[in-house]
Design brief:
Number of domains: 2
CATH topology of the largest domain: Alpha-Beta Plaits
Radius of gyration: 24 Å
Shape: globular
Number of strands: 11
Protein name: Retrovirus-related Pol polyprotein from type-1 retrotransposable element R1
CATH class of the largest domain: Alpha Beta
Domain Reverse transcriptase: 1-174
Order of helices and strands: EHHEEHHEEHEEEEEEHHHHHH
Pfam families: RVT_1
CATH superfamily of the largest domain: Reverse transcriptase/Diguanylate cyclase domain
Oligomer: single chain
CATH architecture of the largest domain: 2-Layer Sandwich
Structural class: alpha+beta
Length: 310
């Protein structure tokens, strides 16, 4: 894979759960024992939607859609879109996250990457058409990364292709960005995680406003309660996905991560701004963000290694 260019395409299905076609679903269920088919049938039938506003109240029967909020609903949806995932081969791989699809495509040359991606998108579009589903073309985005082995042949070791490929689905062009957010993690075309760390910094500033409402005037507020709030809200938000991005941070990114944590430590201790971060961590008993992030990454790496062995 070091010799191949890569493309990551984020695909959004328009009103996916609301548009699941029951006729198509039961065609998929052909071959299953009648007990299971009847169970799903009676689970879906006799459903109504109630709409109420200041003027009127309306009730309509449902003949499509995947009911949400139950244990079996995700299983039904996974079975419904499984045909899309069955197309995976050596050139592209599709992964589903609920109603969002992520497509990873490889190509030896830029034109191969463009051709392989458009072929994969065409196949996905056909599968979605068979499932009576549509894509939100305006919400679809793509990210392109140059192969590692071609860095030395590019000007200034650029990690970006000289010409951006063109990706289309159903006649609509997909926007190619320098960064792409998937499941709350921001990926950039150089895989440096700089965009994600910057996003964490902006999120920290937003959370600080809520944090200030608690500690600004309530000086007598129990510090254990504040510490619990930090560990369950702030730290979880900052270290989300650390098992993915935590292994390759630069010193500059680590310093920025500590500066994000420092904002809350100063609010927590009400210490002077000249107080060092290490002292703040010692006073509060809260470990450095880098130490917690390393721990999460190492545990995740160990679990992944064990699963690979078995």
């Amino acid at each position: 894979m070091n010799t191949d260019h890569l493309a990551l395409v984020s695909l959004d299905i328009k009103s996916a759960f609301d548009n699941m076609n029951w006729s198509v679903l039961f065609k998929i269920f052909i071959g299953l024992p009648s007990f299971y088919r009847n169970f799903i049938f009676y689970y879906l039938c006799d459903r109504t939607v109630l709409y109420i506003n200041d003027v009127c109240e309306t009730t309509r029967h449902c003949f499509k859609g995947c009911p949400q909020g139950s244990v079996i609903a995700p299983i039904i949806w996974n079975i419904y879109i499984n045909t899309i995932l069955c197309n995976n081969n050596t050139t592209f791989y599709t992964q589903a996250f609920a109603d969002d699809l992520a497509l990873v495509v490889s190509g030896r040359r830029a034109r191969d990457l463009e051709s392989n991606t458009n072929s994969a998108l065409e196949q996905i579009a056909l599968n979605l058409s068979d499932l009576k589903l549509k894509l939100s073309a305006e919400k679809c985005q793509a990210l392109v990364a140059r192969s590692i082995s071609s860095y030395k042949f590019s000007k200034r070791n650029s990690t970006v292709l000289n010409r951006k490929p063109t990706f289309k689905i159903n006649g609509y062009s997909i926007k190619i960005s320098d960064s792409l957010k998937i499941l709350g993690i921001v990926l950039d075309n150089k895989f440096t995680w700089s965009s994600h760390i910057l996003t964490l910094h902006n999120k920290a500033l937003f959370l600080t406003c809520n944090f200030n409402r608690i500690v600004k005037t309530k000086w007598s507020l129990n510090k254990n309660l504040i510490k619990l709030w930090y560990s369950t809200v702030i730290e979880k938000a900052l270290l989300y996905g650390a098992s993915v991005w935590g292994g390759t941070l630069t010193k500059q990114q680590v310093d920025r991560l500590h500066s994000i944590q420092r904002i809350f430590l100063l609010k927590f201790t009400r210490a002077y701004r000249t107080t060092s971060t290490n002292v703040l961590n010692t006073l509060t008993g809260i470990p450095l963000a880098r130490a917690r992030q390393n721990r999460i990454y190492q545990v995740s790496d160990l679990v992944w290694t064990r699963q690979s062995l078995y």
